[in-house]
Amino acid sequence: MRNHFNQFLLVGFVTVIFSNIPSSQGASVNENTEPNQKLLILMLDGFRWDYYDKQKDELVGFTKFLNEGVQAEWVEPVFPSLSYACWTTIGTGVYPETHGILGNYMYDREFNETFSIEDLNSTQLERWWQNSEPIWITATKHNKKAFLREWSRCDVAFNQTRPETCTGYVGADGVEGVRDTLQAGLESLKGDYDLVMVYGEHIDNIGHQFGPYAPELKEAIVGVDAVLAEFLQGLEEAGLSETVNIIIVGDHGMKFLGEGSGLPSAAKFLNLSDYINPNDVLKIVDRGPHLTIATYENTLDKVYQSLKGQEGFDVYLREEIPEELHYRNSRLVQDILVVTHPDYYIRGLQSPNQLPVDNPDGIHSGGAHGYINSMSDMRTIFFAKGPAFKKGSVHPPISLVDQYQIFAHLLNIPAQPNNGTWSKVSGMLKSQSDGSIGYAYPMLTFGVLLAFLSFV
Ligand SMILES: *[C@@H]1O[C@H](CO)[C@@H](O)[C@H](O)[C@H]1NC(C)=O
Ligand SMILES: *[C@@H]1O[C@H](CO)[C@@H](O)[C@H](O)[C@H]1NC(C)=O
Ligand SMILES: *[C@@H]1O[C@H](CO)[C@@H](O)[C@H](O)[C@H]1NC(C)=O
Ligand SMILES: *[C@@H]1O[C@H](CO)[C@@H](O)[C@H](O)[C@H]1NC(C)=O
Ligand SMILES: *[C@@H]1O[C@H](CO)[C@@H](O)[C@H](O)[C@H]1NC(C)=O
Predict the structure, then answer these.
(1) CA-to-CA distance for 158 and 33, rounded, in angstroms?
(2) Answer CATH for 38-94+132-254+373-428 from 3.30.428.10, 3.20.20.10, 3.40.720.10, 3.30.450.20
(3) Rounded to the nearest whole angstrom, what is the distance from the C-alpha of residue 300 to the centroid of ligand 5?
(4) Which architecture does CATH list for 268-364?
(5) What pTM was estimated for this model as a whole?
(6) Is 188 known to be catalytic?
(7) Rg for the chain (alpha carbons), in Å?
(8) Catalytic residue among 23, 81, 83, 399
(9) Secretion signal: which residues (predicted)?
(10) What confidence tens digit (pLDDT) does each residue in 253-281 have?
């Protein structure tokens, strides 16, 4: 009896699994018949995938949101798991090697130009941004009105086109910064905007300063939760709850560093100066969870050999960089890439060749991101609710590149060529319920439960 039952389960499993395969490459985002619905995307910087679950009992706004909507179990970011690289992938659906924004710092050797998150003039240079068309530009070209607040470099024209309203990223501190952008988003939804993209930095700032497990971080989540609850209330009062799709995304997670804490779980700090003589390098771009090095022709091998085989990081020449990082096929990749192992952090040089130069006393950091994107601490969130989404379900993990097609689908505009997989996200939508992964997941869970019961 039990054997038969297990066979039945096996057949069930196989049916469930195989019935999903045809949809995996099939449905195209362009076969779209969603009615015109507005879309608001809230990006919460540094919102690690497990923050919500760890304190959901005290969260009101997020819990209400998820009861009415869907969530991906987690989102794997891109490499490097840094803001500008991830923001640009969210906006375009392509990997950094394609959109060309390789991190928060870059160096363009051909034009002798640097890109630094701390220098607005450098990030506002148009040339960096022309490789891939962001969603707000495609929307604008299709006569949709877009409103962006604090969103990446939306203030830089793409091929001479700009969205209707935009203030780019300059950084807005505190929970007040999140409230201001969300309230501005609400006002624009009440007006005639179709696409609203707003950003909050608070959780990332606190995560860096105190680390992902600190009471300050928990407090920050509670603060943002209250701001979200207030926003949802405002949305209801404006009669927009049933007509606007709301998506909350993060860009990356956060790893505990605990610099100076003396805790056994703290990261091990290495000094780049123990391996590299500043005179041998033209530029060191970034530090910590990863860094890249521009050398001279006659120093390349020396620098490479001094790093190769050391404890705490992997070293690659440009042509050795693993394909699966989707990083190496960019003009802006330097001669050497160093990818730090999860329990380490590499301090940069104290030299004008280092971009950026940190305080010599250390950065006194509680947390960091920028590690390899497959590391679980780098994962982030995708929460969505609204007329287009299913209610109250959890979907299998997705990748950061997958989200873009959802945005294009909901706006009823053609997705630009991208690296997303439609079948990984389509199951979250009410209209795409035919054999999608979103159904398989609860059925698999059900199957596991049955299998378990059959052994008891
Ligand atoms: C590159 O620019 C820096 C300052 O921005 C300058 O000091 C340096 O000489 C320039 N290098 C070359 C090769 O032009
Ligand atoms: C940015 O450019 C403006 C105008 O060109 C200049 O006044 C300002 O000093 C620059 N800021 C930095 C940080 O270089
Ligand atoms: C830029 O816009 C022009 C005019 O609309 C168009 O012909 C061209 O293909 C666009 N280039 C890119 C890279 O999108
Ligand atoms: C790195 O440098 C700092 C500051 O100079 C020093 O305190 C620390 O011991 C060094 N770490 C290693 C692993 O050498
Ligand atoms: C990602 O998409 C772009 C645009 O279609 C394409 O050029 C690139 O080859 C894709 N990358 C991968 C790894 O498939």
Answers:
(1) 28
(2) 3.40.720.10
(3) 30
(4) 2-Layer Sandwich (3.30)
(5) 0.89
(6) no
(7) 23
(8) 83
(9) 1-26
(10) 999 999 888 899 999 999 999 999 999 99
